[in-house]
Write a structure and sequence with these properties.
This protein is α/β, with parallel strands linked by helices and 261 residues long. The chain has a single domain, classed as 3-Layer(aba) Sandwich (Rossmann fold), CATH 3.40.50. Helix content is 43%, strand content 14%. The chain has a 7-stranded parallel beta sheet with strand order 3-2-1-4-5-6-7, sandwiched between helices. It is globular and about 55 Å long. InterPro entries: NAD(P)-bd_dom_sf, Sc_DH/Rdtase_CS, SDR_fam.
């Protein structure tokens, strides 16, 4: 637990499901004020708010597109109007779809880049502007992926977006470190979220994925939420401009495990 997170205000985009939900719930258990963002599906949000409040935190829900300028500004305004501050911005909303690169429609490319990269820029820009205006030494956390460094055929738009998030995070961290604003990314590996449910329900596909993970198992959303809580807390006060990979070792060339090669 991180006592300094109590009473801090955090926005989590794409917080109604998957990694975003786990992060929002963890921050709520840390007794933070949480702005739960969703775009279209609010299923389970009422229960999230109730659980956060029972844990000693506070929460509101805000329907908005994290890929659009007005949607992001709406989130910042809601945090300010309800809780009077913004200390933590977590850009988490994202999407992917599988298409061979030479067949990928421009619409698919634009849609993924708009949410996964432009949306993160907008979230970072608006949060940093707010922090500067109110003299807050806050933190921005971007949800990247192991695919910011591992190529991923059939997902060129997703991999490109996460590679962009890496350099955006590092650039913003360098630019705003003198102001006491920290900017970091989290790079999850294979995680048991709804977007992967169908794949992991197939024993063969799950086994194939596990073979690429030196630790031998698919991670849980709560393991990523723990990383987010640490990066948001003062325990990581001297950390900025990194991608913290939480991937069971997936980025460490698992094909070479056991001295192969």
């Amino acid at each position: 637990m991180y006592p300094d997170l109590e009473g801090k205000t955090a926005i989590v985009t794409g917080a109604a499901t998957g990694l975003g939900k786990a992060i929002a719930m963890r921050l709520g258990r840390e007794k933070a004020n949480v702005v739960i963002n969703y775009h279209s599906n609010r299923e389970g949000v009422d229960e999230m708010i109730e659980e956060i409040e029972q844990a000693g935190g506070k929460a509101i829900e805000v329907q908005a597109s994290a890929a659009e300028e007005e949607g992001v500004k709406k989130l910042i305004q809601a945090a300010h109007d309800t809780f009077g501050s913004l200390d933590i911005m977590i850009n988490n909303a994202g999407k992917e779809n599988e298409v061979e690169s030479h067949k990928m429609p421009l619409e698919d490319w634009n849609s993924v880049i708009q949410l996964n990269l432009t949306g993160y820029f907008l979230g970072s820009r608006e949060a940093i502007s707010y922090m500067l205006e109110h003299n807050i030494k806050g933190t921005v956390i971007n949800m990247s992926s192991v695919h910011e460094i591992i190529p991923w055929p059939h997902f060129v738009h997703y991999a490109a977006s996460k590679g962009g998030v890496k350099m955006m995070t590092e650039t913003l961290a360098l630019e705003y470190a003198p102001k006491g604003i920290r900017v970091n990314s989290i790079g999850p590996g294979a995680i048991n979220t709804p977007i992967n449910q169908e794949k992991f329900e197939d024993p063969e596909q799950k086994k194939q994925v596990e073979s690429m993970i030196p630790m031998g198992y698919v991670g849980e959303p709560e393991e990523i939420a723990a990383v987010a809580a640490w990066l948001a807390s003062s325990e990581s006060s001297y950390v900025t401009g990194i991608t913290l990979f939480a991937d069971g070792g997936m980025t460490k060339y698992p094909a070479f495990q056991g001295g192969k090669g």
